[in-house]
Amino acid sequence: MTRFQNPPEGISQEALAGLVAEAVQQALMQHGVLLDAEALVSASAIAGSVAAALPFLPQVQRLAIASFKGGWTELTSEFFRAAAEKIVRAGQAGAGSVDEPPAVGLAKPASRPLAERASELQSMLIEDWAGEVAGSTYLEERLRIPRSTLHRWQRRGEVVALRKGGRKHVFPLAQFVDGRPAPGISEVLAAINNPRLAWFWLIRPCRELDDRIPIQMLRNDMVEDVVRVARSLS
């Protein structure tokens, strides 16, 4: 997203869009709007981007928009129809491009959607997609993992730590086996160095692994295949 000079109140357009998107997502969920996870993220991101763009426009453009007396619903619907058509045309053009390399195996097509999840996952509540998570206090009391050990694992990239809020981190519980991170976690994090993306991939069926769930395979000491596929995605 474009950043502008001298943003209002010292906040960037990108940051403002993220704040609005989070508020919109919470409002949609609170009012029981029936959308799947991907549609919910898309709707929130679009609303955030539109609302955040307005304060950064030149004054003459803001005044022009403020003077608009037409139907915003109709205008918005027309925008989405045009955007959808443009996206479809771009996809078709890309599929027919002579410069497009041929797909080899399954790893190449799978890597792009995973990478595209990064910005979406940043705006989603961890509890909505990551499963059960806990902080260091819970892990120390229930799993007998000392804070110093947990922080050492985190520094070394041996445990999945998901940022929640400013500086706080929480840890998905499914990654622990007998009070330690499952074998292979560090290798996956080395291959997919965004912790949210790494965990997102670990907890969902993977077609390169015959639709098995990577974290379950790691918990069963099936490390080699999981690490091989994770490296191919990176």
Describe this structure as you would to a colleague.
The structure is a single chain. The chain has 234 residues and is mainly α. The protein has two domains: 8-95, no CATH class; 107-233, no CATH class. The protein has eleven helices and five strands, in the order αααααβααββββαααα. The strands form two sheets. A three-stranded antiparallel β-sheet has the order 1-3-2. A two-stranded antiparallel sheet has the order 4-5. A hairpin with a 2-residue loop joins strand 4 and strand 5. Helix 1 (13-30) crosses helix 2 and helix 8 packs parallel to helix 11 (223-233). The relative contact order is 0.08. Mean pLDDT is 76; it is low at 1-7 and 97-112.
Key words describing this protein structure:
234 residues, mainly alpha, 2 domains, three-stranded antiparallel beta sheet, two-stranded antiparallel ribbon, 11 helices, 5 strands, elongated, disordered N terminus
SSE layout:
Blueprint: H1 13-30, H2 37-53, H3 59-66, H4 72-95, H5 107-123, E1 133-134, H6 136-142, H7 147-155, E2 162-164, E3 168-172, E4 176-177, E5 180-181, H8 185-191, H9 195-202, H10 214-219, H11 223-233
Antiparallel strand pairs: 1-3, 2-3, 4-5
Helix pairs in contact: 1-2, 8-11
Q: Assess the beta-strand content as a share of residues.
A: 5-15%
Q: What's the helical proportion of residues?
A: 55-70%
How many separate domains? Answer: 2
Q: How many beta-strand segments?
A: 5
Taken in chain order, the helices and strands follow as HHHHHEHHEEEEHHHH
Largest β sheet strand count, sense and barrel closure? 3 strands, antiparallel
